[in-house]
Structure formats: C-alpha cells, structure tokens
Amino acid sequence: MKVQLLLVGKTTQDFVRKGVDEYAGRLKHYLPFEMETIPDIRNIRNFSFDQIKETEGDAILKYIRPDDWVVLLDERGKEFTSMEFAGYMEKKMLATPKRLVFIIGGPYGFADKVYALAREKVSLSKMTFSHQLIRLIFTEQLYRAMTILGNQPYHHEQ
Fold first, then answer.
1. What's the rounded Cα separation, in Å, for the pair 50 and 125?
2. Smallest Cα–Cα separation from 4: which of 57, 77, 63, 88?
3. How large a percentage of the chain has pLDDT more than 90?
C-alpha cells in the first residue's frame, strides 16, 4: 500500500515547507509515501467561496483513481489520539490494496463532489488551524504513527 498526501495549492510558509519535507523524508523509511500538490487556481479574484471549492474539487478529482481509499482531513471527521491513529494506520496498511489518499483542501474546505468520493473523514483537532499548518501537523502525526507501530522511542506514553 502507498500513502499519498494530496495538497491543494503550494505550501507558501517556509517553516511549514521545511517541516513537511523533514517528516516526508522520515516517512519514506517506513512506507511508500508521496505528496502531490495541486497547483493554485489562477484568476479567482472574483470567484465566490463556493466557486473556488468547485474549481478545486474538479482539480482534486483528476488526481483520484477508482481504487483509491480517499480520506479527507476535515474538521467534521473522526478524531484520534496518536495511539489510536497508529492503530487506524495499521488496519489501513493491512486492508488497503492500492493507495491510501489523504487530502488537505484549500482554505474554504471541500466541494460536495469531493465529500461524495471520500470513504472517511479525519479531524486532527477540535481547534481550527490554517490549511497550510495542517500539512505539518498531519505529516508529523503520520510519522509518529509509524514510529509507534515500529516500537521506536519517538512517542512517549505516560
């Protein structure tokens, strides 16, 4: 199984980009991991939030394959502790034959057509974070899950 992280728009904050790159590099020691960035949509100055979501949704759909297991990172998704997320990943690695695709949308969320193709939604917190910062938080938590599964000392249980 391959884990794919699909991002809407480039990571603009340097400290976030550096952190995401660090964890993405570490993850490759544990599982096949790739990030794909959907280019920023141009000329949207006069678009409504819904039009932006629809345009981003069309772009997302182009990256999804029929046999992908799609998980949206969404504030209305299921919440996990780090240990629970490690268990979730362990189950997915055993049960998902092709690609497990996590999607981080743009600042206005997802279009209905993207919600319709998703198999699950995961929330990283009840707090609101920028869609840029979620990239760093998610890659760190995915790395943490892999170290938990590998019984490595990165995660400390209390």
1. 24
2. 63
3. 84
Q: What is the DSSP string of 82-128?
A: HHHHHHHHHHHHHH-SSEEEEEE-BTTB--HHHHHH-SEEEES-SS-
Q: How far apart are CA 66 and CA 92, in angstroms?
A: 17
| CA Rg value for the chain | 15
What's residue 22's pLDDT? 97
Alpha helices (H) along the chain: 14-27, 49-61, 82-95, 112-117, 131-149
Q: Report pLDDT digits (tens) over 90-129.
A: 999 999 879 999 999 998 999 999 999 999 999 999 998 9
CA nearest neighbour of 57 among 110, 117, 14: 110
* Interval 64-78: pLDDT, tens: 999 999 999 999 999
Rounded CA separation 134/131 (Å): 5
Reading the block at residue 29, the tokens are 């020691």
d(CA 133, CA 73): 12
